[in-house]
User: Which sequence fits this backbone?
């Protein structure tokens, strides 16, 4: 349809936070987190912003693609945890890697990377752009409530990026939004405005876990079926599925409902937790560098999150 992936890259910060360490901070246990979520460790940024991590993932993707930052015609970034809302994270990545093309962010929470990828694909179809960089970068540790055990045990920091170019390997895509903030929201606080009348919730991830869980399973299953239909294939012809890493039980349940064996799903939640928009490109990068991919493999990516939003796409390697 419109593009091919030339190179991928990922970056996670050095500091690792274990479940045992978290158990010293909130009333939780390694056993609960492992069984209910599937996370054992997550990486935490001490000093690096989402943009700084995004730039490192971008450099690695450029190296893998064999092109220079100066050759990029577009940068589209995804994040919900930037240190600043202006400049955009994409603009900061552009400066850090030495590119000079237009750069902007999209916000679709954990589905953000796939929304960004589809946006870049549309620019490539429009013409005039040879290479685009798409990344997801998150410093979620800065927006978590570290006293809330129902959220702080789930997430982690990191970044992932793709360099894409014109090609025929994008076989299907489905983006979905169902507006409403009662299930999942990250309010920003109100600064010191004297004009607000309503109470504003503090900056933190607010989530109804079980509602999100149900939405996630439904959207993964529906999204994968839809993109397979668009591409004129059956779901069992898909060689690999790269899902958003939010909860191992979500992936397991979706796999069973689809009748696709777990071995086809890329799973790394135990090492990184949920890195929101970075989760799919980090996982894809691990698959791409694993040596397991064969030319012509069909790879589905799928994600879900705040918005509520979800996305799925199918590519040919
Ligand atoms: N450690 C120990 N106990 C915990 C805990 C923790 N970190 N977090 C919650 N609990 C407790 C609850 O207080 C509750 O106790 P109670 O039975 O005494 O009231 C019990 O565990 C069960 O809580 P519940 O919320 O029903 O657990 P759950 O099985 O639904 O798991 C989530 C909670 C958040 C892990 C799960 O719902 C989930 O992963 N949802 C999807 C979230 C998601 O994908 N978010 C990202 C979207 S991009």
Assistant:
């Amino acid at each position: 349809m419109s593009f091919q992936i030339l190179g991928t890259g990922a970056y996670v910060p050095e500091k690792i936070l274990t479940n045992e360490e978290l158990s010293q901070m909130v009333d939780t246990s390694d056993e609960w987190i492992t069984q209910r979520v599937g996370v054992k460790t997550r990486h935490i940024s001490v000093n690096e912003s989402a943009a700084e991590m995004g730039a490192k993932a971008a450099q690695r993707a450029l190296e893998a693609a064999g092109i220079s930052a100066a050759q990029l015609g577009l940068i589209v970034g995804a994040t919900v945890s930037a240190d600043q809302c202006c400049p955009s994270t994409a603009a900061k990545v552009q400066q850090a890697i030495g590119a000079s093309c237009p750069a902007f962010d999209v916000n679709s929470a954990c589905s953000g990377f796939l929304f960004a990828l589809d946006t870049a694909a549309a620019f490539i179809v429009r013409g005039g752009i040879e290479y685009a960089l798409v990344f997801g970068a998150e410093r979620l540790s800065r927006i978590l409530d570290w006293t809330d055990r129902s959220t702080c045990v789930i997430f982690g920091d990191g970044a992932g990026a793709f360099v894409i170019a014109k090609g025929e390997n994008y076989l299907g895509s489905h983006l979905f939004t169902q507006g409403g903030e009662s299930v999942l929201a990250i309010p920003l606080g109100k600064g010191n405005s004297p004009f607000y009348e309503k109470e504003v919730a503090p900056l933190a991830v607010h989530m109804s876990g079980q509602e999100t869980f149900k939405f996630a399973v439904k959207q993964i299953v529906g999204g994968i079926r839809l993109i397979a239909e668009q591409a004129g294939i059956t779901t069992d012809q898909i060689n690999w599925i790269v899902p958003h890493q939010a909860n191992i039980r979500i992936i397991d349940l979706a796999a069973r409902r689809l009748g696709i064996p777990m071995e086809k799903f890329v799973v790394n939640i135990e090492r990184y937790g949920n890195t929101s928009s970075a989760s799919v490109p980090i996982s894809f990068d691990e698959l791409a560098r694993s040596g397991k991919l064969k030319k012509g493999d069909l790879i589905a990516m799928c994600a879900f999150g705040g918005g509520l939003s979800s996305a799925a796409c199918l590519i040919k390697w």
Observations:
- The pocket of coenzyme A is lined by residues 28, 32-33, 36-37, 110, 149-150, 153, 207, 209-210, 212-213, 216, 246-247, 274, 305 (CB under 6 Å).
- Residues 209-231 form the longest helix (23 residues).
- Residues 2-168 form a domain with the Peroxisomal Thiolase; Chain A, domain 1 fold (CATH 3.40.47.10).
- The chain has ten helices and 13 strands.
